[in-house]
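Retro notes - structure team

What went well: the batch runner handled both jobs without manual restarts.
What didn't: labels got mixed up in the shared folder, which is why I'm recording both outputs here explicitly, each with its sequence directly above its tokens.

Job 1
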Amino acid sequence: MRRRMGGLLTTLAIVLAGAATVDRPEFVRLFDGKTLDGWTPEHSDRFSVRNGVIVIDGGTGWLRSAKPYKDFELQTEYRALKRGADSGLFFRAHAGSTPKEPHWPIKAYQLQVIDAEGNFMIFGHGTPPVRYRRDTVALRAAMKGPGEWQRIHLKVVGNHAEASLNGTPITVSDAINLPEGYIGLQGENGPFEWRDLKIKELSAH
């Protein structure tokens, strides 16, 4: 009887482990490394793919994901190709853009990505100003220079957003009020490159 019970417990453990594996969300790629399939350029022809990366050759507008997201983790790498080059990550963005330049989303949040001290600020487009905390000392220690690849991890759940640079936590906000929206790459100032874009959708808790 004891041996049979042990066998049943082992089987149950295997079943539960399998169920946990099935339920656990995984990262999926937003960029295939070859084309802009799955993305929509908004008011811009300055986004292209070269040598396995998304290149922004200056100019404004933005590149929009194929579907909206609510709660998620996003991982990607970027590099500014000259000092002061400026781009950004839009999240929970509406599909519509402003009719005049810079033609960015009418409503969205933006994680500022720039080769300057303003890196990793969070802006609101068509929303009240966003309250956030940013560790500028950690930012200066983690941030690399122009031409070097840098990794972003952005997690957004409910009203909470947190962003890390090269594995170092930098920015936190609990004032994210738009419920869901698109992911976007911003065109703003100077040449910029993005690669290894992937996302994991999270279930609400």
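Job 2
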Amino acid sequence: MWWVYVIQSEEVRFSERTGKKLDGFRYVGSTTDPARRLKQHNGLLRGGGKYTSKHRPWGPRALYGPYKDRSSAFKAEKALKKLRGRARENWSPKDSKWCWGLGTGHPWVEDPTWTED
């Protein structure tokens, strides 16, 4: 089974223009093991992405799926990446036929060690 996930950087950042605090960057990806992939993004295991290594630590925000295969997950990931900011966490079937699953209500969001087994 494949999953599409949204993680958010917990790095503190501020607007250069106004000085106001901003939300951390959000990143969208797909994987067969969300718990392992989050550890990779946070540098606890080898294999994290170049972009995510610059904005650690990362926390889970939403998990969509499961998808039956890599192709379906990549289509969902591509559709989700068209959205920006918090909209990625509030993705719904109204936004795309590729959206299904619990999103922000998935147990992985509260317990990043969650595994499908």
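One thing worth noting from job 2: The chain has a mean pLDDT of 95.
We'll revisit the folder naming next retro.
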